[in-house]
Amino acid sequence: MKPWCLLLLLLGLSWTQASGHDYRDALAKSILFFEGQRSGKLPPEQRAQWRGDSALSDGSEAGVDLTGGYYDAGDNVKFGFPMAFTTTMLSWSVVEFGELMPAEELQNAAVAIRWATDYLLKTVSHPGLVFVQVGNPVRDHSCWERPEDMDTARTVYSVSAERPGSEVVAETAAALAAASMVFRDDDPDYSRELLENAVRAFEFADTYKGAYSDDPGLKAGVCPFYCDFDGYQDELLWGAAWLRRASQNDSFLSYIQNNGKTLGADDNINEFGWDNKHAGLNVLVSKEFIEGQVLSLESYKDFADSFMCTLIPESSSSHIQYTPGGLLYKPGGSNMQHVTSISFLLLTYAKYLSKSSQTVNCGSIQVGPASLQLQAKKQIDYILGDNPMKMSHMVGYGDRYPERIHHRASSLPSVSSHPQFIACKDGSDYYKSPDPNPNPQIGAVVGGPGDDDIYEDDRADFRKSEPTTYINAPLVGALAYFVANPDAGLVLT
How large is the greatest C-alpha to C-alpha distance in the chain, in angstroms? Predict the structure, then answer.
């Protein structure tokens, strides 16, 4: 056995013996995080009270109302592409694992989703246009100021027939469709509105094909932050898959069957995140083959199986890198986005396999649902503190956690404690300060350690210390699973 395999085996045994995390507390905090990311007029029941109203004139440049939604990370821009993906993943978390959540947290998750969907509905409500971003990122990133004090340009970016943005509009369709399932029982009228707008958004994305970052005017605003590096084709299939699941309309099944090869369904790419939907698409669509025996979709299960095998260290097909401490690692920064999204896929696929008593053939070994659950548990427990540094990577969870996250609102004094205006450059001293952030952004999960498991808690190192909404969104589902199944995957057979 290779030394690193032995290390992972030993780590697995140590995790097996230590399953004492308070997943319910972590779940509550992972959802609370979204309140600290809110843009717009805050409601009376706002729990993150260090935040105040912000960006109340968003959209005025274009003569529309684009208030609300979320700031995606530690800055004050509303990027539509990652916000839509965040919404899809929050909704998928509830669709898949909401029944396992404590009632109060299920309600909080629904509120977090609705804060996003109310905004996304505004972005698709104007014929011929879809609004995809508010805020000039270059000017925003030149400042270190509270969202409540923003005085940088709130530039409005939109796509149209002449300037298409299939990836962001199709992701918006996916988000609205997935969210429609969340509200189906408790608010059927809202659910219907979400689904109807999802259909219209998808038709727009499919009719006017193109990547939004291919347009010079849009590229200046979305790149290099949320460029479409992977092409828009996967989002069209992803949007169609969510519309199929939410509506059960056969036309979307036909779309997947008829357009899969053209749109790259056979590109077995082992990635999943705000830009690349392939692995998530394969897991989502494979449900129809596994449970519904739609034979034409068998290739999606084959690709999902192949992806799962890359995550199992004992598999001969393993290609995913792990740190010495056992954390899944992909170079490029903000690594925790990969950790949480892939952990969610592991648990979701395990759920599908369990319902059909199936396993995954990884060549030399057969991998069952319990093995997938164990892999996910190792990753989630690492985030919560089972790592070489013995620290949680979620703010407010555990005895030791990041205190200097790369986050403007968290690092600057709140409006309630310092009502005086803090101008663009006046926040620099707070940015450079070695002191902990005055407003802990509870529930925020940082980008995470490097490939050596070291996390320095350095505000300036944004690749490691900046939280994002799309790190937390799939984590909500994973934590919900472990609330109900704290020892899942740990039974030795």
Answer: 65
Q: Is the pTM of this model over 0.85?
A: yes
- The full DSSP string for 429-464 is HHHH--SPPSS--TT-B-S---TTS-----TT-HHH
Is residue 394 within 8 Å of residue 29, measured between CB atoms? Answer: yes
Q: CA-CA distance, 147 to 29, in Å (whole number)? A: 22
Query: pLDDT-derived band of residue 65, with 50, 70 and 90 as boundaries?
Result: very high
Mark whether 171 is an active-site residue: no
What's the rounded mean pLDDT across residues 114-118? 98
State the number of CA atoms in the 13 A half-sphere of 171 facing the CB: 29
Q: Which residue has the tokens 């010495």?
A: 324
- Does residue 291 carry a catalytic annotation? no
Whether the predicted pLDDT of 5 surpasses 90: no
Determine which one of 105, 228, 230, 466 is catalytic.
466
Catalytic residue among 271, 314, 457, 458: 457
Full set of structural domains in the chain with CATH: 37-44+52-447+460-483 (1.50.10.10)
Q: What are 165-211's pLDDT values in tens digits?
A: 999 999 999 999 999 999 999 999 999 999 999 999 999 999 999 99
The two tokens of residue 316 are 């001969």
Closest-CA residue to 404 (of 486, 464, 482, 487): 464
Backbone φ and ψ for 270, nearest 5 degrees, come out as -90, 65
